[in-house]
Design goal:
The complex is a heterodimer of chains A (386) and B (495). Chain A is of the alpha+beta class. Chain A has twelve helices and 18 strands. Chain A has a five-stranded antiparallel beta sheet with strand order 4-5-9-7-8. Chain A has a four-stranded antiparallel beta sheet with strand order 12-13-11-14. Chain A has a four-stranded antiparallel beta sheet with strand order 16-17-15-18. The two termini of chain A are 27 Å apart. The model of chain A has no long low-confidence stretch (mean pLDDT 97). The model of chain B has no long low-confidence stretch (mean pLDDT 95). By secondary structure, chain B is α+β, with helices and mostly antiparallel strands. In chain B, the strands form four sheets. Chain B has a seven-stranded antiparallel beta sheet, with helices on both faces. A five-stranded antiparallel beta sheet of chain B has the order 5-6-10-8-9. In chain B, strands 1-2-4-3 form a four-stranded mixed beta sheet, covered by helices on one side. Classes of the chains: A alpha+beta (386), B alpha+beta (495).
């Protein structure tokens, strides 16, 4: 059982990494640990627990930016923003229950490290699009920063993009600045009823290509959901416009509160209805390919369950437990990427969790990793295969 | 502007290098006589000029790959160039480097409306993308003011912005995929029509890397549906503070306008004399607020913005009545640079970003510096996102004025960093701000960035002399210092 080292501030964090470098100790870097079970299983010498480096550093609502420490719980950030009617527009999911944990445990920085995003990914971007800057420690034990606290910044390489989605393998962050946006006044959801997958994908793509600023497009079962948000008169007009797009469809509408509950469930992959021992995949493809991807998988694995977000471009997939998690079936001919979000440790050890890269890209990614963490101290092997 | 010393060995081998390039790119794709190379001697930062070693204009990805592999093998430097509209000298030639022009990559390969994206070659102009999809009601959102001329490949290199960034993001938020050629000739594809990446987000890293990491040969851009309505509101304020307060109040009220621009009194006057847009000449600060979306939403937001502006003491408040008037309101702002060009032999355009809350203080300080340096300054800026464009007026024929203008510009950028901002919001570092990078970054910050560069280009052959004040050798950067006096760090809690 590895010991835990728990720094209380940026200085101690740097000391901890310096110590690890000197001792040749590998680190399992975690915030709250809510996403521990995503990625390749690791064998680390020590746990580096960031939950002690926590708290809001600065929040400037009129600047649309919040600065916080790495261990700050996501729910604390969201509660703060809600007081000023603002939000993290990329809708950070809470995958706790999907992963067999309690809800509401994650940190914002953990969400950023997985580059997660909810339904609004379509119109507002992912975590990567909202990380304005950070400071942290690289694998040489050096404190460094990138980006800033302003909206527009092209000074030097955009290392924020690289850190978002790096699963803690490049650097240990101590502080981030994140863009925030006004929360919508009202939300309305138009449900198209009795729609099959192929028709649903066409309908979602048509809605996304309409001028009605759809901020969520999901397909669950035989219902296709289109979300419209904003100021009341605008929401009213846009919902009407959307209805007119589908003159022959059977429709229902959800109001603001029902909509919020519905999209929260979509965000957290609740509609997947995965059984406790199912393997769960998250597939990103071109939206228009979504239904075909699922049809191909279902042809090989009839017990597959799936639902669509991001206009068909995000597929949540549950497959009956198998030693290889059907990874070849899932990835065969896929133009995009598939991540095995949930599977037992021995399955994750055996199959590529992240989408395998072509050799030139894999070699380049390895050199990039090396440029931050040459001794492989941080989360060794977590993204193996990438 | 100090550039790296020329390598006499490369200069001596020029004939051999030209012959090798001609073997890769047949016909007129290699330009090696001095007169024909003249048009390439500078980009839009035209105060600095330099002839390249030779110009090569490839037409295929295979040619780009062969050129880069040759350059890597023979240690020849390469400067990539799109349309040459960089305001920071990002594509300025280097005397012992090949200038690799991508202008012949000018085709739109595919438009995919279902997935709202287009696959284009890097030499296509920014406006060319919008023009190609406009008939179907779509557009490409980032709109730098050079959009008629600037290329998509250049936009990727610089992470270009425009007046609509606050709502629609910069280039980096509007890309789905890239194909690029690495310095070793390898061709790599990033992204595609899907969102995000399964591995490291190299697409995000490439965007804004100023041509130092690879040469982009294909770009997949996101297309957006054109808003059905757009209206502009012209707001004049008796003080700059009033205008700045109004910007903050609009955003605090939950409105993100499509664009929100501010001009100071001198800029208002210059633009009005040049275009006759009907700007209020008595105002100290002018805002142009553009609201877009469905007509009812725009009407609703216009009314709210008017109300907020009046509460902040606006003395002029005009709403565009039709498309013609909206375009007229913008015409003055869009012509602000040439308008300033009418009243001065030369001007220097700066590009710092600051937190919006410090805007008024920064403007006051810029005026004080203007008196100190004895040079006039005119201010236009993207107020919504705190991106300043102070224009320093000077005469380049007077060496002392040029020198003072450079000093003044550097002072403004230092001020931006001091108040919590950055050196450049959208124009890039290039050669222009290269030597100020240490104001914003520590040596450690810059070393980390250079190590990333080493992962792509271990011999520093790609776009040398740009972005980094001093390039350190990759071998030296790669060393890991391990302190052998082992420290236990007993003061950190452990379990």
């Amino acid at each position: 059982m590895a010991g835990t080292i728990k720094p209380r501030d940026a200085r101690e964090l740097r000391q901890a990494v310096e110590w690890a470098l000197n001792e040749g100790v590998t680190l399992d870097v975690r915030g709250s640990g809510s996403k521990l079970d995503i990625g390749k299983p690791m064998r680390c010498d020590q746990v580096l627990d960031l939950s002690g480096v926590s708290g809001i550093v600065d929040y400037a609502p009129e600047e649309l930016v919040v600065t916080l420490r790495a261990g700050t719980p996501l729910r604390e950030v969201e509660a703060l923003l809600a007081q000023r009617k603002q939000m993290l527009a990329f809708e950070p999911p809470d995958l706790g229950p999907l992963l067999g944990r309690a809800p509401g445990e994650g940190t914002l920085v953990g969400t950023i490290m997985g580059n997660f995003a909810g339904p609004r990914r379509l119109s507002a971007g992912a975590a990567r699009d909202h990380l304005l800057g950070f400071s942290g420690v690289n694998g040489r034990g050096e404190a460094f920063k990138s980006g800033g606290r302003v909206m527009k910044n092209v000074t030097g390489y955009d290392l924020s993009k690289l850190l978002a989605g790096s699963w803690g393998t490049l650097a240990v962050l101590d502080e981030v600045s994140v863009k925030v946006l006004p929360a919508p006044d009202q939300t309305r959801t138009l449900l198209l009823l009795g729609v099959d997958d192929a028709v649903a994908v066409k309908a979602m793509c048509a809605a996304m290509g309409s001028p009605y600023e759809v901020s969520g497009a999901a397909h669950v079962g035989d219902r296709t959901a289109l979300r419209v948000e904003g100021f009341a008169p605008s929401v009213e007009a846009r919902v009407k416009g959307l209805r007119d797009l589908f003159p022959d469809a059977k429709m229902e509408e959800l109001g603001t509160l029902e909509s919020r509950a519905f999209w929260r469930e979509v965000r957290d992959a609740v509609p997947l209805g995965a059984d406790a021992d199912d393997a769960v995949w998250r597939i990103s493809s071109a939206p228009s390919d979504g239904a075909a991807v699922v049809a191909r998988i279902k042809a090989a694995q009839p017990f597959a369950k799936a639902f669509y977000d991001w206009s068909g471009g995000l597929i949540w997939l549950a497959l009956p437990a198998r030693d290889d998690a059907d990874h070849q079936v899932v990835r065969a001919g896929l133009l995009g990427h598939a991540t095995l979000i949930r599977a037992p440790e021995k399955v994750r050890a055996a199959v590529p969790v992240f989408q395998p890269l072509p050799p030139a890209l894999a070699a380049l990614s390895a050199r990039v990793k090396d440029s931050f963490d040459p001794k492989g101290l941080f989360n060794p092997g977590r993204m193996a295969g990438v | 502007m100090q550039m790296p010393p020329l390598d006499p060995d490369i200069l001596a081998r020029r004939g051999e290098i030209v012959a090798a390039l001609k073997a890769i790119v047949p016909g007129e794709g290699v330009i090696d006589d001095i007169d024909s190379m003249r048009p390439f001697e500078c980009d839009a930062l035209s105060a600095y000029r330099q002839l390249p070693l030779v110009v090569v204009l490839p037409e295929t990805v295979d040619q780009v790959s062969a050129i880069l592999r040759y350059c890597q093998d023979h240690k020849v430097k390469v400067v990539p160039r799109g349309a040459g509209t960089s305001l920071s000298g990002g594509s300025m030639p280097v005397g012992d480097a090949i200038l690799l022009g991508m202008a012949k990559f000018n085709r739109i390969l595919e438009v995919d409306y279902a997935n709202r994206c287009a696959r284009v070659q890097p030499g296509v102009t920014n406006l060319g993308v919008t023009n190609a999809v406009e008939s179907e009601g779509f557009y490409y959102a980032p709109d730098p003011s050079s959009q008629i001329a600037c290329s998509i490949g250049g936009n990727v290199a610089e992470n270009s912005g425009g007046v609509h960034c606050l709502k629609y993001g910069l280039t980096t938020n509007n890309l789905l995929g890239l194909e690029l050629v690495l310095m070793n000739g390898e061709v790599v594809r990033l992204g595609g029509r899907h969102l995000d990446s399964g591995g490291y987000d190299l697409l995000g890293l490439m965007t804004g890397s100023e041509g130092l990491l690879g040469v982009v040969t294909e770009v997949t851009v996101r297309l957006l549906r054109k808003p059905s309505t757009a209206r502009a509101v012209l707001l004049g304020f008796p003080t700059e503070a009033g205008a700045a307060d109004c910007v903050a109040a609009v955003i605090a009220s939950g409105i993100i306008p499509g664009g929100m621009e501010m001009m100071d009194k001198d800029a208002i006057q210059c633009a009005e004399n040049f275009v006759g847009a009907g700007y209020p000449l008595d105002a100290e600060g002018l805002l142009i607020v553009e609201l877009d979306g469905p007509a009812v939403e725009v009407d609703y937001l216009v009314a709210r913005v008017e109300e907020i502006a009046k509460g902040r003491g606006a003395t002029t408040c005009r709403v565009s009545r039709d498309e013609q008037e909206r375009v007229l309101f913008w015409a003055g702002r869009k012509a602000a640079f040439p308008a300033v060009g009418q009243i001065t032999p030369d001007y220097m355009c700066l590009d710092g970003s600051v937190p919006r809350g410090r805007l008024v203080e920064v403007l006051g300080e810029i005026r004080r510096m203007s008196r100190k340096h004895g040079l006039r300054v005119v201010n236009v800026f993207h107020a919504g996102d705190g991106n300043l464009h102070p224009l320093i007026l000077f005469d380049a024929n007077d060496p002392d004025e040029l020198h003072r203008a450079e000093q003044f510009g550097a002072d403004i950028l230092r001020l931006c960093v001091r108040v919590g901002g950055v050196l450049t919001g959208e124009h890039g570092v290039g050669i222009e701000k290269r030597d100020l990078m240490n104001v914003q970054f520590t040596d450690t910050d810059l070393d980390q960035q250079m190590r990333v560069k080493c992962a792509f280009d271990p011999d520093h052959l790609l776009n040398p002399g740009k972005v980094f004040p001093q390039l350190r050798r990759c071998a030296e950067l790669g060393r890991v210092v391990v302190h052998h006096n082992k420290i236990p760090f007993p003061d950190i809690p452990r379990f």
